[in-house]
Amino acid sequence: MEHKVDLNRFALELELIKKKKKKDNCILFYGSSTFALWMDIEDIFPNAINAGFGGSTSDEALYHYEMVAKPFNASVLVWYFGDNEPVCGYSVLETKNLFLSTWKKFLNDNKNIKIITIATKTCPARDEYSMFVKELNAWQKQMAKDNDYLTYIETNDLCKDSENNYKLEAFRDDKLHFSGKSYAIIKERIEKELKNI
Questions:
Q1: How confident is the model over 49-102, as pLDDT tens digits?
Q2: Cβ(32)–Cβ(57) under 8 Å?
């Protein structure tokens, strides 16, 4: 598959992540700016490592797996990607394959790992990609139903109301990233799933 971004464009952020102290049985939050901007992840969740970086894609997540994600030897992976793939020119099929390839690397290195995938959000700033997100999330949800290692957390109800209108309070002023209110709800949903692991 053709790489559509400079895979080393967030090198400085990745170096900082690699220097983080290892924790036994850690919960690794591996994702794009949705995690990078969630600044208190490591305070909220015991044994958490926030490995969110830049406006990254799952192509970069896969490429940097060996040097960035693998050394933490996570017992739980919390995954969030999909916002930036359509913007950077990746198709839904390519994105699915990148998700799956990275998840398989985690599973190959730790067969007991549990993966929590957070549904890619739809947002007013990128409404033109809403069908991409809908297809990607439907696939993620089905994958979670079919595979015991994977759990799916919904976000569409945070982003839109019952009439399919965006809830502006769910987003920051940029209408792209989650607001503190949304993070609080996602936190509760992750905590609920962690109790079941």
A1: 999 999 999 999 999 999 999 999 999 999 999 999 999 999 999 999 999 999
A2: yes
Instruction: Check if the beta carbon of residue 73 is closer than 8 Å to that of residue 49.
Output: no
Torsions phi, psi of 17, nearest 5?
A: -65, -45
Taking Cα atoms as reference points, which of 174, 84, 159 lies closest to residue 122? 159
Phi first, then psi: what are they for 166, rounded to 5°? -70, 140
Whole-number Cα distances in Å, 157 to 96, 122, 161: 22, 10, 6
CA 122 and chain centroid, separation? 14
The CA-atom distances, in angstroms, between 101 and each of 31, 45, 47, 115, 173 are: 15, 26, 25, 13, 34
How far is 74 from 22, CA to CA, in rounded Å?
9
Is the pTM value of this prediction over 0.90? yes
